[in-house]
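stage 2 :: seqdesign
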């Protein structure tokens, strides 16, 4: 990064935000997976739900007026309603290690683990799991694997994802400002809408690309006619959802984190067309690791962080599709297959 202007952090991942790790796990046979965002210490968090068909856990607990104002982890998972069990595995792992909201002496701690899921049930994987879906175990495996580096593309909660007519996936990006704030995003893209413009392979997010991070094609191929969404449109019967988490090292209150989550949703609109449809379950979490005070005036600093989070999220969407590859035993169209 040029010290005089904002640019990606050293990994160009959400883990460039100090105090965060990410772990992932996937089940190849089922074609599903889990991504866990793990702060080193309880972190202020918020959520913003825009899709018409969301699947979530603990999002009400994050409201600024409610009792608990920090989380111990955030879970993104495939598996639709079954995937919410991934948070059970993460919760049990954290509780066994003494993490969570404390009550009276002798009462087990209660880890706060919000979660959101995407619909990857129609991707051809083996879903005959009976009474034992794999997602709880995947949640435990994911948190055990948490670290600073993690795979993009066909990995984690994006393992079974499809983005319109293309292979979806997990993406991430970061930015460090000239005055030292770090903002990052991780996203699992399973959108109904298209991530590319009609007639080519130009990402809708192209104007926000940094350092050729998703192909460096530029934005010359962008165009958007009325009711023209690109070749990646697919039938509504498949159901969908894009789920994400943005993070910053700035010190935020729960209400301020909520504002960052709201603003970050615009990153979806910059990278996916259309988005927030009735059959999407789009959700964005926001996390503050609370290491750097907001500069004065705070409202201006907060606006900057929200705008940066939206840009990071748009870039992360494109990176997830750019890095996606087919499953080993099945072909699915990928961005890399498209003709320039």
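stage 2 :: out
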């Amino acid at each position: 990064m040029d010290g005089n202007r904002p640019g990606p952090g050293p990994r160009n991942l959400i883990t460039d935000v100090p105090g965060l790790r990410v772990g992932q796990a996937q089940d190849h046979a089922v074609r599903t997976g889990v991504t866990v965002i793990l702060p080193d210490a309880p972190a202020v968090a918020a959520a913003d739900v825009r899709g018409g068909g969301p699947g979530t856990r603990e999002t009400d607990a994050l409201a600024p007026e409610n009792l608990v104002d920090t989380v111990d982890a955030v879970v993104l998972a495939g598996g639709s309603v079954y995937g919410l069990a991934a948070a059970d595995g993460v919760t049990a792992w954290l509780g066994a290690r003494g993490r969570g909201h404390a009550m009276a002496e002798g009462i087990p701690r209660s880890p706060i683990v919000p979660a959101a899921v995407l619909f990857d049930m129609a991707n051809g994987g083996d879903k005959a799991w009976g009474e034992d879906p794999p997602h709880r175990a995947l949640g435990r495996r994911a948190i055990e694997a948490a670290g600073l580096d993690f795979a993009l593309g066909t990995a984690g909660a994006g393992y079974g994802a499809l983005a319109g007519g293309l292979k979806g996936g997990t993406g991430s990006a970061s930015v460090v400002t000239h005055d030292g704030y770090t903002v990052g995003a991780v996203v699992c893209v399973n959108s109904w809408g298209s991530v590319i413009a009609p007639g080519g392979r130009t990402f809708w997010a192209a104007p926000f690309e940094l350092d050729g991070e998703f192909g460096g094609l530029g934005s010359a191929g962008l165009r958007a006619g009325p009711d023209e969404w690109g070749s990646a449109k697919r039938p509504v019967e498949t159901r969908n959802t894009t789920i994400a988490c943005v993070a910053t090292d700035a010190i935020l209150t729960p209400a301020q984190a909520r504002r960052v989550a709201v603003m970050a949703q615009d990153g979806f609109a910059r990278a996916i067309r259309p988005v927030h449809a009735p059959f999407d379950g789009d959700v964005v979490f926001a996390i503050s690791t609370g290491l750097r005070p907001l500069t004065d005036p705070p409202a201006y600093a907060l606006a900057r962080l929200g705008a940066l989070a939206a840009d990071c999220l748009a870039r992360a969407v494109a990176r997830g599709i750019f890095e996606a590859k087919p499953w080993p035993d099945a072909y699915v169209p990928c961005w890399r297959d498209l003709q320039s």
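stage 3 :: structure notes
- The two ends are 29 Å apart (CA to CA).
- The mean pLDDT is 93.
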